[in-house]
Design goal:
The chain is α+β, with helices and mostly antiparallel strands. 30% of the residues lie in helices and 35% in strands. The chain has five helices and five strands, in the order ααβββαβααβ. A hairpin with a 2-residue loop joins strand 2 and strand 3.
Length: 140
């Protein structure tokens, strides 16, 4: 079974060498989001994008996120997020795109995925070449 501790390495292994192909990463990420993770109560999936200077350089970030709420002995402990983040040089078109959409706002995860795939915030970057992809897990 997938655990929060091994989720990052599990996803990286599933994606393999196709990290430059955003559509392949998205399809793999969607499949991963449907897999159970040990002690996970709810699926918490986020799609977000926008132009930010988190790295000291202004870049367009497109981020697929699976969030894990961790309990220890039935007490809330912390949250961790597993990111599949694509970075692009910002263009005028990308600067107009910004969104954060959570799966918990939908009755069904497939409805969430379908909605994301129909957003211009998803479709426009899909046709572009990212300068970098980062897959990482962090405590928030």
């Amino acid at each position: 079974m997938i655990t929060v501790k091994n989720a990052e390495s599990y996803l990286k292994n599933k994606i393999g060498k196709d990290t430059d192909d955003m559509k392949t990463v998205w399809e793999t990420f969607k499949a991963f989001c449907k897999e159970p993770v040990e002690r996970e109560e709810d699926k918490e999936i986020l799609f977000q994008c926008g132009v930010y200077d988190f790295t000291g350089e202004e870049l367009f970030h497109l981020d697929f996120v699976r969030q894990f709420t961790i309990y220890e002995e039935d007490e809330y402990s912390r949250m961790e997020q597993l990111h599949c983040e694509f970075l692009f040089k910002p263009t005028d078109e990308l600067r107009r795109l910004e969104i954060g959409e959570w799966s918990m706002d939908y009755d069904d995860i497939d409805d969430f995925f379908n909605e994301i795939e129909n957003l211009k915030e998803f479709k426009i970057p899909l046709s572009l070449e990212p300068i970098k992809i980062e897959i990482y897990q962090e405590e928030i």
